[in-house]
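Final report, Chapter 2: Outcomes

The project's central promise was a pipeline that accepts a single protein chain and returns its three-dimensional structure in a standardized token representation, suitable for archiving and comparison. That pipeline is now operational. To close this chapter, we reproduce one record exactly as it appears in the project archive, with the input sequence first and the structure output second.
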Amino acid sequence: MSGQRLKSQFQRLYHHFSGQDSDTNLQDIAEVLFCTRRNVRMVINKMVDTGWIAWEPAVGRGKQSRLIFHSTDSELQLNHARNLVAEGKLEPALEALGNNADKLAQIIQEQLGHTTAHGKQIVRLPYYRAFSNLNPLQPLRRSEQHLVRQIFNGLTRINDEKEEVEGDLAHHWEEITPRHWRFYLRPSVRFHDGRLLESRDIIATFDKVKTHRLFSHIDGVTAPFANTIDIHLSMDDHRFPDLLTNLVAVIQPADVDSTDRTVLFPIGTGPYKVIQNDNKRFKLEAFEQYFGFRALIDVVDIWMLSEVASCYLQPASDATQLGGVSASTRLKLDEGCNYLLFNRVSGLPVDPLWLTYLQGRLTALNILQRLNKEQIGDFRLTNAYGILPGWAHVPLVSRAVVAPPAKRTLTIAFACQHPVYPHVAKAIEDILADDGIKLKILELSTTEIALGKHAGKIDLWLGGMSLMNYRDDALLAWFFNFDHIVRAMPEEEFAALEAEVAHWRRNKNVPSPCQQLGAKLVEFGQILPLFHNWLGVDDSGVVQGMQSNSMGWFDFKSVWMKPEHDAL
């Protein structure tokens, strides 16, 4: 007998006796369950074994046996739903609960956070969308960038505490000349599929990496000796090890392609490997053969809850509600901002009158006043006066609001599946409508935006950026890696900024131009910063080491569980 059929039999029995302990006999129960006396014994024994009922058979002819209920119909329903939720089957669980989303939300809340199953320590986290692309060579959103860091390694990395460059797959390196760098690799590093990392994997990776603007000065990569990589450059670069900490430069297998399988289940050398990735669950498991310190948490299980749990999980689950608990009061601003990018190449902002109008009307303050606080949930937005917190490049004096040059339709585009952008776009639509201007809204994938789909017909983009660390040069990954900004920017302005960065790379003693770069983007009218987000994670529970990073997440491999009660 299947488990579901046994549940149905119990429910029929429970409803017949109204959940009351009763005196009865096998024949009566057989009639209730529509089965023979022989089968009814088997059914009762199974219900007793599961703990749902107790059965006290009568002694003596004509006497009644005693049926005692240890479970209720609703408890059985909830337990069944709990099992379905634990398996990630949220839609069947909702159906089992009579489509009661509140009950389902309670069950999900119970199972979020930390747990131990089969001797493994598991951290379960809520999130509002699936992770459909984890290819580091493609443009990634903030959370995907964080996850890629858990899956891959580069030759170098940034130490999160010291903000300094340190070895990753390379344990040492040397500058033979400013155009010739040598990296010494750790031996016996393995990919998640068990294969040893070889020089050809690094050479193949950089053949793809050098097609990106930030790495275009790579001439060639060779392996002169075992566990040794030489990288030759077309221009002097004294800061090349810093550049290699960029996410684009993480090492992938030589034979990797861009199929759906490798995008969803990438193979890296990092502390965690992907074992599940679909529309309901994303699961990472600690990689036992990781060359560094083995992760302390065995499994990180991220649940996609946008459809049925919005009633209690706010969109900020990627930052302020990690672990299914309330956010820590020790919040900090994310290292980045939401912004408007104006198309000054083929959009209406090419006209200085239109640009001045949009800058004056679409200020952060004007937009914030139009946002429905209930719709954006727990997102904590604050005015941005520059691209990064602490940068003050937006004029503190409000610009004079000028009339629009004409009654036109403007087109705005932003990344789809974002919990806030649609509401910001609606606020912008309302502001422009006051001046008789219509707004056409396009929701595109991150890849479509980066590749320039419809770019010539878009007047402004609503976007966001969060940097991987708090160093000034982290800004360069956002500005140069993909051509989204250069496509919207006058060629001579972009070339001038690119030349400043190249000059800084060639000269050891030149200060970073990154803050000036950010200031000029605002000054040119290319970028209008809007909001910074307040981020934080709860660090008050049994999961230790949950310190929010610049992305609003925490380093999975460094957290661990503290027993709730110390042993005596």
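Archive annotation: The CA atoms of residues 209 and 374 lie 43 Å apart.
This record, like all others produced under the grant, will remain available to the consortium after the project formally closes.
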